[in-house]
Design a protein that fits this description.
Layout lengths: L25 H5 L13 H16 L4 H36 L5 H34 L29 H16 L5 H39 L2 H34 L3 H7 L1 H10 L6 H10 L4 H14 L2 H17 L6 H16 L7 H14 L3 H13 L1 H23 L3 H4 L2 H8 L2
Main location: membrane
Keywords: Membrane, Transmembrane, Transmembrane helix, Transport
Membrane topology: Multi-pass membrane protein
């Protein structure tokens, strides 16, 4: 959960200033007189798609000497990513856990608990359906042990070892211990330090990792093409994308079925009222950027302003049911086509741990898969190439997962309305409203 200092992190300047349900003044501020007009920025998804297409096409004709430049970059980048992953976990999970101990008391705890339960149930649903359907859908598709491009068809010019400060499991245990400990003491310099560390980590993701991802994915697909594995990978992605989209529809119908029962409204009508938020999230791929629209749509469903203004900003960072569904499904698919052992107990443990990691995922497009990369490696044994494919697959349909996340936030708001039993004014004080708006 993000603090007020980095509220809508990764979603563009000025978003943190927009209170939920209020019209944002950011565009007007950024286009004030005397300022040169900004050039339109190309989103991450188009860049990733271009990188994939170029990687496939150029992989058919590119000389090995030039291709080695990109495998060299991939080796260095993946080493840096491996170094950064434990720091991402500590920098994001520790302050997220610490902040669960403050804020709006029982209502905060109840909302966080429902959001986590929703995320876990979606992950378990995706896991069960994937284990049932994907072996049949993928048929005989197999690429054996997925190799890193720098280890197979083309070799890098040089390699740089960047060992992490500590491993991923150590980072998780350390984050839990420190985060829980910080909830037991008065806020001081240590917690402020972790909040500053979170800001640093998110800025690194925004300024270095995300901009370089297209190059990394280009090199990954370049190597897969030169290895002759690319067509199996593409066929796998298409089949899984169809399954993921179908599951998101089922998840939203189930969430709003429960929400409709909770407040006595037509669930389909409620879901229809949330469509502006769904479409906005499709365009932005950011839950935080969609907060004002999500809050307004939620209020149209009869949710009190105090509930909507509390739940929607909070769930924008802790409720990632769609993201968990996507990551779980693609993880199972990659394990199947690479011949990895489908260890059900390990996959169950992965889903529960993924629910915790998703709470701390930054709000940048693709931030959820970056936060989950360490768990994929440590708990499922994914190598660098498998993690790279997960990143590419996740970002390719990132907007659909984000849209599922934010639309589900409206269902949680309805459930919280029922739990509040009409005593909304007693649940939130003015100071607590200010805290929640900055989450």
């Amino acid at each position: 959960m993000n603090s007020s200092s980095d509220a809508a992190v990764g979603t563009g300047a000025g978003e943190s200033a927009a209170a939920p349900g209020a019209p944002s003044s950011a565009p007007a501020d950024s286009s004030s007189s005397g300022d040169a007009p900004r050039r339109a920025r190309v989103g991450l998804l188009p860049r990733i798609l271009v990188a994939i297409v170029l990687g496939i096409l150029l992989g058919l004709v590119m000389p090995e000497a030039i291709a080695r430049i990109f495998t060299t970059f991939n080796g260095v980048f993946s080493g840096f990513l491996g170094f950064l992953i434990p720091l991402i976990i500590v920098g994001l999970v520790t302050p997220a856990i610490a902040e669960l101990g403050r804020g709006a008391g029982k209502m905060l705890a109840a909302t966080a608990g429902i959001a986590y339960l929703s995320t876990i149930l979606c992950g378990l649903f995706a896991l069960g359906l994937s284990l049932l359907l994907l072996p049949r859908m993928l048929g005989d598709a197999s690429i054996g042990t997925l190799e890193n491009p720098e280890d197979s068809a083309i070799a890098p010019y040089f390699a740089i070892e960047i060992p992490p400060v500590f491993d991923v499991m150590t980072a998780l245990v350390l984050s839990f211990c420190l985060g829980i400990g910080l909830t037991l003491v008065k806020k001081g310099a240590l917690q402020e330090s972790f909040e500053q560390l979170r800001t640093i980590i998110v800025r690194i993701i925004e300024a270095i990792i995300i901009p370089l991802l297209p190059i990394y994915i280009f090199g990954m697909f370049l190597g897969l093409t030169m290895n002759g594995q690319i067509w199996t990978v593409i066929g796998t992605f298409l089949a899984v994308i169809v399954l993921v989209f179908g599951m998101t529809v089922v998840v939203l119908l189930a969430q709003y079925g429960i929400a409709g029962l909770a407040i006595g409204r037509n669930p389909l009508k409620m879901l229809g009222n949330m469509m502006p938020a769904y479409m906005t999230a499709l365009g932005t791929s950011s839950s935080a950027a969609t907060i004002p629209v999500t809050a307004e749509c939620t209020k149209r469903n009869g949710i009190p302003d105090a509930i909507a203004d509390f739940v929607i900003p909070l769930c924008a960072t802790i409720h990632l049911s769609g993201s968990t569904l996507k990551i779980t499904t693609f993880a199972v698919a990659i394990m199947i086509v690479t011949g990895m052992d489908l260890n059900v107990p390990a996959l169950l443990a992965f889903v529960f741990m993924l629910g915790v990691v998703m709470i701390a995922a930054p709000g940048v497009p693709g931030g959820a898969i970056m936060a989950a990369a360490g768990v994929l490696s440590s708990m499922l044994g994914f190598g660098e190439a498998a993690v790279g494919l997960m990143i590419a697959a996740y970002i390719a349909i990132d907007s659909f997962g984000t849209a599922t996340n934010v639309t589900g936030d409206g269902a949680i708001a309805a459930i919280m309305t029922r739990l509040s039993k009409g005593r909304v004014s007693g649940d939130l004080t003015v100071s607590q409203h200010e805290h929640v708006h900055g989450v």
